Amino acid sequence: MLAYIIRRFLLLPIIILGVTFLIFCVFSLLSPMERLATYIHDPSTLKNPQSVERLINKYHLDDPFPLGYINWLKRIVRLDLGWSQTANQSVWDAICQRFPATLELVLYSIIPVILVGIWLGVISAVHHNDMLDQTIRVTAIIGWSLPTFVFGLLVLFIFYGILDWLPPGRLSSWAQDIVYASSNFHSYTHLITIDALLNGNISIFLDALRHLIAPIITLSYISWAFLLRITRSSMLDTLRKDYVRTARSKGVDEHTVIHLHAKRNALIPVITVAGMMIIGMLGGVMITETIFTYPGLGFWAATAAQQLDSGSVISFALLFATLMIVGNLIVDISYALIDPRVRLE
Amino acid sequence: MKRNLLAMGLLLALIMLFASFSFAEVKNPDTMILATIGGPESMDPHWAYDTASGEVIYNCYDNLINYKGESTSEFVPMLATEVPTVENGLIKDDGLTYIFTIRKDVKFHNGDILTPEDVAYSIKRALIFDRAGGPVWMLFEPLLATHSIEEIAVELAGVENYSDLFENGDTRGELKSNYKDAMVKVVTDYVNKVVEVDGNNVIFHLAQAYGPLLNILAHSGSWASIIDKKWAIEQGAWDGQADIDTWWKYHDPVCENDPLYAIENGTGPFVLKKWVPEEIVMLERFDDYWQGPAKVKNVQIKGVAEWTTRKLMLQTGDADLAYVPIQYLSEVKRMEGVRVIENLPTLSNVVSMFPWTINAESPYIGSGKLDGKGIPADFFSDVHVRRGFSYLFPYDIFITKIAKGQAIRNSGPIPKGILGFSDDPSLFYDFSIIKAMEEFKLAWDGELWEKGCEFNIFYNEGNDTRKAAVDMLATYAKMINPKFKITPVGMPWSAYLKAFLTETLPIFTIGWLADYPDPHNWVPVYMGSKGDYSSYFGEVYKEFAEKNVDPLTEKALKETDHVKREEIYKELLKIAHDQAISLYIYQPIGHHVERAWVKGWYYNPIRPGVDFYSLSKSE
Amino acid sequence: MNRTVRKLFSNASSLVGIVLLFIFIIIALFAPIIAPPLSDNPYQVPRMSWDVNPQPPGFPISDDIREVYDFMGTEIKYDKAICGTAEGGYDIFYGLIWGTRTAFKIGLITVTVAGFIGVFIGSISAYFGGWIDEGLMRITDIFLSFPFLVAAMVLTTILGRGLDKVMIALIVFGWMGYARLIRGSILSAKEETYVMAAKALGVKDIKIIWKHLLPNTIFPVMVQGTMSIGSMVITAAALSFLGVGAPVGYADWGQMVSFARNWIIGAPGHAGQYWYTVLYPGIFIVLFVLAWNLIGDTLRDILDPRLRGEL
């Protein structure tokens, strides 16, 4: 067991390195002039061919691939992630600024996803193959078949356009003023809802929550369908087990059988999948954040990818890869700890 | 039990939701909010060359002079007490000397008082800073008759490239010791000579007579903003000495090393309170502003990339001003409580250009020969080809359908609103398939018509207007002769830029936005031998321009009489027409959208963005 | 096999899926008849008008465009935009019909190729074990750790717009699931007695994998593949929405929806006036994906050995 954990930890940096190497490879497909495009949005700012030379020189755009990668590695070791052209600030600052926003969104999304997904999955399994099951399954599948961006835009339309209940962005203007510029407001965690509570400011708390609802609905609605399926099949599996049959034959009431005995064991694989899903969400927020103009990592990553801002993209990929791998590891280990039947090879 | 808990949870959530609605009607009476796309790049006036940065700098910094209201040619004093003219004697020596008397008792945001030293420092630091791809070339042209400080350094030191002056060619590294004297001379003999302080006056010494100098220095030109010398040096900017602090270390830094990138200290009506890049810029009124405090206490400039979101913000009043792209203008006009001001001539145009010589290795010219499967590299050097395409484009359909009527035609490189503009009908190419056919039949001794041609036209992806223009050209070309196989292709910006720089694009469509409102910022760009765009037309064009265009543009630059200048530019327009140098697609007409409770907005075509000092809010 | 097919038809939801799929297949096959192309590239959606604004269903082709076609001698076989036009005057109906072919292309090609790659890597990895397994699985981890959408966007931006580039991006980052699946199955299957027996008889490794192991372990992969066809189409649509992907004017459902992006909220007082820009493409995407999902979901239930007795 310990050996397994140690081995996985040792492999961690190798995999991360592999990810960054791959991205670097992809970017090296671009010629220096094409890479210039991240810095120049208008050819009119290049007054003469010398400007092009100057710029290529200044940003080391013509460094050969191995040199470029090694230089980048050297900088990363010093925790210097470089400059983000798309965010107009250093990459580190860009990430620090946006990470709490995405984290807040994902954390709050987990609740409805898990509650609804698992709840409906259990119901679906218990009523296996009758109308309720079919209805739930079909609803889930339809939900899964609709592209996020259409759903998100519709949510925006209904809840903002028509009802004016849930505006886009992260905060209203008056709240932004207080959070960003007032000396009375202390940002401890940069999760605005938590900070608002810590500062004792209920109105900001509610305002932030209000801005979160629509993105949460959009972000979570695909995920709960997925979780539903896993829960359902796992629950079906468990309900057929011998010990469940035994409990039933002993006269235990159905309700207790389902919720006390079966569900606990059925949820084991579900939890691990949920763990991976949460991390996956961190990468999947791009579209949701774009639609609601929610200033998180996803929005920035989408812009950076489009404008070929290599510094930002590589750093985002690095961050995401690290989270994925670490998360994966934690999930695998906890799975092994929880379920003694699992053997780790 | 669980079910009850869940129900209670939902109920609680609903209650909280409704409770929060009571805060939905909080007004922003003290704040003016602008919802737009994108955000500023830098707060450093000598770095910024984009409109978003220009807008913030405009509101936080002042210049020596300002434009008078809506005019782009009349000036009023700002930090100088009088606008120099030939009549009042403040322009001397045939336009080589300009004298500015500096206003007293003007405060910077941090409390420092404005002195003539600050003005001199601002100019000199700009010249030292001189970032590649930045705006300071505009100061170099009049003051030192060159484009960059590196050109001066290279000449004084007698080397070929600026990087030759440094160890390992690393311009951020150590200077080779034998060049130190030459480098110091750059400052002592050149930079320090362009501007001197004389009592309360600052005197500019130009290297050549330059009509547009006042335009370059006026408010709207963020590069000529006056910064606080003491404060800048405290932040780590160049400290004004040539040899003690080596100037080349302050030259052309990368953004993260620019000490003034995120902070400001100007004399303008607003202070930068907070800047979250790409998200929001928060400005606060400067109560000690020398012209009196602004009417609005707070300003927020929000970056909202999604149009539907911006539109909803405008609708609900969460935004007071918003950027509305042309195609959605009709929807906004029907909104309640929203005011739309139209017919604002913008100082910009969109042009399709025909390089006389295309890079022979271009992959976009097919076979490279006039055999129906490609075009030769000098395809567009034949004036009949160029004229043919000029007749082929359906200008009016484009303006009505694609630009929704919010555009006008230009006959040549000078747009409406700039001296020299002409709507003389003889200078326009009308859309005529017959005339196009005639011209094409004359091209290349009739071979073009017989054999046909095949090539790609490119547009930068994400720009639907340009795509439509390019589609139209291709469609009509095929229409008159099925052997004209022109394929429109969209390219990502990176590839487009590269193709542009390597002169491989057969026809490229690009726009230009005025740096300052003078024809000298237009004609050389599109027609000169060293123009920003025309320099990519190849050797043959260069020779033509050196002979026929450059002498005229030089003459017009130095001419002080407006009428005479206009005549010279008319000659140039005629050349542009006769030679069909480019296809002038359109000049956009702008519009402004605001909530009806916003008061005080006025239009000035050269101003970058909104002048918040002039605005107020009342029901 | 027969039993499977019968079960598919007897289950209500999968029957719906099969019918839907059948309709789509018909549309794809008869596209040139339903929506005759007006230029040599049939995937180029014709413009009904140069107008930027979307036009409502029934909009007739605008005069200046009709002029062009008449001049060129092209016969216009239908001249009304049955489903309206999208931003830029592109005919929605045409885009949807030919987009069916594009959807099938994207879905089938990416899933098949990614499936092959995944199965190949996964089975080699599981069968040979040891260092090979370790190495291949680490490589799989590397690819899995990528933020998929970002990586796909970067790749398509660099390679340029085009359907083939989108498919490359989807394949490059889509094979890992299959690899893991097949690896898991083979890991357990290879300890079975029949495999041991084959090895003892000296049967070649390749043959063992191909003839014995794969046929018994391939089903989960097939189920996963069926479900993935839908999600591949959605991902391609997402890429179009984010601004990369098929070239503008290409008949692709994602394109059609992305055209609707700025028109979902109509003019004030006319909320939803551009409903057709969203509804028609939206319906097509949803039904297509739904069809595959319904079939795949039922297939999974059928092929799940633990449920075999219950259905």
From TrEMBL, chain A:
Domain (ABC transmembrane type-1) ranges: 99-331
Membrane topology per record: Multi-pass membrane protein
One Pfam short name: BPD_transp_1
Segments crossing the lipid bilayer: 9-30, 105-126, 138-163, 212-231, 266-294, 314-338
SUPFAM superfamilies, per database record: MetI-like
Keywords: Cell membrane, Membrane, Transmembrane, Transmembrane helix, Transport
Entries under InterPro entries matching the protein: BPD_transp_1_N, MetI-like, MetI-like_sf
PROSITE patterns, A to Z: ABC_TM1 (PS50928)
GO cellular component: plasma membrane
Localisation per UniProt entry: Cell membrane
One biological process term in Gene Ontology: transmembrane transport
Domain of life, per lineage: Bacteria
Gene3D superfamilies: MetI-like
Family recorded in the similarity comment: Belongs to the binding-protein-dependent transport system permease family.
Name by which UniProt lists this protein: Peptide ABC transporter permease
The species this protein was found in: Candidatus Infernicultor aquiphilus
Automatic annotation (TrEMBL), chain C:
Bilayer topology: Multi-pass membrane protein
Gene3D superfamilies per the UniProt record, alphabetical: MetI-like
Spans through the membrane: 12-35, 106-130, 142-160, 166-182, 232-253, 273-295
GO cellular-component term (any): plasma membrane
Swiss-Prot/TrEMBL GO biological process terms: transmembrane transport
Domain of life: Bacteria
Entry keyword set: Cell membrane, Membrane, Transmembrane, Transmembrane helix, Transport
Family the entry assigns: Belongs to the binding-protein-dependent transport system permease family.
Name the record gives this protein: Peptide ABC transporter permease
